[in-house]
Every structure is written in C-alpha cells, then in structure tokens.
TrEMBL record:
The keyword Nucleotidyltransferase does not apply. CDD domains: LPMO_AA10 (cd21177). The keyword Repeat does not apply. It comes from Streptomyces cinnamoneus (Streptoverticillium cinnamoneum). This is Chitin-binding protein. Residues 1-29 form the signal peptide. PROSITE patterns: PROKAR_LIPOPROTEIN. Keywords: Signal. It holds the Pfam family LPMO_10. Residues 28-194 form the Chitin-binding type-4 domain. It comes from the Bacteria.
Length: 196
C-alpha cells in the first residue's frame, strides 16, 4: 500500500512540475497601441519570433536609457538575448500602425504585473532612421517626445498616455517606449513600428 501511495505522490508531483513549466511567467507589460513587435509576435501576426511569442510582457533590461540600458542593436529586445528576434529588422517588414505627424495619439500599455514606476518615456526615430537596420541610439531623437512621470506610484493594469506625434517625419518610423521601474535597476522596452 505504501508503494502505491508513494508512486501516486511522485506521479502527481511530476504532473504538477510539467504543467507549471509550460505556463508563461507572470511578468510585466507591453504596449498594444501602437502595436509593439512583441504583441505582433504573441498574437501570431508575425511568425518565427522565438520565446517572445509566449512572453510579450517580459522585455526587461537595464534602466537609464539612453545613457545606459541596452546596447545599440539590442534596444528592441531590452538587451535580452532570449528575445533577439525583436531586434531583427526583417528587412523593414514589421507590420506598422498608421499615425499622423503633429496629431495627438493615445499610447496604451497592458500590464500583467504592476510595479512602482518612475516614468514612461516615448522616443521617435529621426530622419536618418533606416527600418532595414537594427535600432541604435543615433536613429532616435535624443529626448523623448513624451514623458509621463509617476513618482513611484503603481500604475493601473491598463495605462493610456496622450501625446503628440512629432512633426517633420514621414514614411516608416519607430516608436521606442520605455517603462522605468522605480524600485529595481530595470526598465521595460518596446518597439512599435509606425507609418507617418
């Protein structure tokens, strides 16, 4: 009888480990307006995305951008090699959200785990940006076009920020969104391809 109970307990434990190992980590957040690369991977619009398709909310890297943070060429993945597919420009083939230069836009994040927040910052690529090459700091305006300070508060599960898309751009560009966490050394990064 003891052998049967022991075998049942071991079997149940193995089943629990198997089930738990297939559940994605409950992580953090990603923007869905404009749609980010990680969301396109998670919803199946873009294929061959690797692990990011199961963890679109997990693009976490060092904070302090642009003076610190992910290296050039790894910005869209937050410097996280597990999500390197986000840095691949796919010859400029990422789907893009249509936005209008000089107009207001609602930038929205869905957060799966909420954290004490320093701020959300939004950067736009400049006239030198080439969508067929990995993103570098030289491709971005040095200052964010929108900064939303939080002063350590915890945001809601869905956050929307109103901001004006900068003028003087046209064609395919990229919005880099950075959510800086107040009580850790990290931030969350997301690249959203746009057409102006």
């Amino acid at each position: 009888m003891r052998k049967k109970i022991s075998a049942a307990v071991i079997g149940l434990g193995a089943a629990c480990v198997s089930v738990l190992s297939t559940v994605p980590a409950s992580s953090h957040g990603s923007p869905d307006s404009p749609t980010s690369r990680q969301v396109y991977c998670a919803n199946g619009t873009v294929s061959d995305c690797g692990e990011i398709q199961w963890e679109p909310q997990s693009v976490e890297g060092s904070k302090g951008f642009p003076s610190r943070g992910p290296a050039d060429g790894t910005i869209c993945s937050g410097g996280n090699s597990r999500f390197a597919e986000l840095d691949d420009p796919r010859a400029g083939g990422w789907p893009a959200t249509a936005v209008t230069a000089g107009q207001n836009y609602s930038f929205r994040w869905k957060l799966t785990a909420r954290h004490a927040t320093t701020d959300f910052r939004y950067y736009l690529t400049n006239s030198h940006y080439d969508p067929t090459r990995p993103l570098t700091r030289a491709d971005l305006d040095p200052q964010p076009f929108l900064t939303v300070p939080y002063g350590g508060r915890i945001p809601d599960a869905t956050v929307t920020h109103q901001g004006r898309i900068p003028s003087g751009r046209s064609g395919k560009q990229l919005v880099l969104a950075v959510w800086t966490i107040a009580d850790t050394g990290n931030a969350f990064y997301a690249c959203s391809d746009v057409v102006l």
